[in-house]
Amino acid sequence: MGFLSKRKNKKFSYTPRYYKGEGNPYEIKHKFDEHRTTVGDNKGLKQKLNTAFDDFKNNPDQSANKRIFIIIAVLIFLFLLAIGFDLSIFFPN
Predict the structure, then answer these.
(1) Does 15 map to a domain?
(2) Is pTM, for the whole model, over 0.70?
(3) How far apart are CA 5 and CA 27, in angstroms?
(4) Residue 56: CB atoms within 10 Å
(5) Residue 24 counted as domain residue
(6) Residue 37 neighbours by CB under 8 Å, 6+ apart
(7) Which of 40, 42, 62 is nearest to 50 (CA)?
(8) 51: domain range?
(9) Are 25 and 34 in contact, with CB atoms under 8 Å apart?
(10) Tens digit of pLDDT per residue, the chain (93 long)?
(11) 3-class secondary structure for the chain?
């Protein structure tokens, strides 16, 4: 019994009585994980951005891409209004 070592968790080989499915019934997994490309072992920020951009570029639903651009544009416009930016440079006289 070491004072400096951590205690290991107990492992049990419990199988549910009435479970007849495949795999582990206690595994927590999102139901869309096998369809996403951004889920996985992304090591750095650059790799995360590259996979997110590839997923965005290869999205078959182009209306979702337009909706995201519109939402981003509205948020930027509201931010510029909040900080008092002179918006007259965007509009012709």
Answers:
(1) no
(2) no
(3) 29
(4) 12
(5) no
(6) 51, 54, 55, 58
(7) 42
(8) 33-90
(9) no
(10) 567 788 887 888 776 777 777 777 677 777 777 776 666 666 788 888 888 788 778 777 777 778 888 999 999 989 988 888 887 777 777
(11) CCCCCCCCCCCCCCCCCCCCCCCCCCCCCCCCHHHCCCCCCCCCHHHHHHHHHHHHHCCCCHHHHHHHHHHHHHHHHHHHHHHCCCHHHHCCC
Q: Which of 32, 16, 35 is nearest to 24 (CA)?
A: 16
- Structural domains of the chain, count: 1
Domain-located, residue 28: no
Q: Output the pLDDT for position 23.
A: 73
CA-to-CA distance for 66 and 83, rounded, in angstroms?
Answer: 26
Any domain includes 73: yes
Q: Looking at the chain, how many residues does it have?
A: 93
* Contact present, 48 and 38 (Cβ < 8 Å): yes
Q: What is the structure's pLDDT at 39? A: 66
Distance CA 93, CA 88 (A): 9
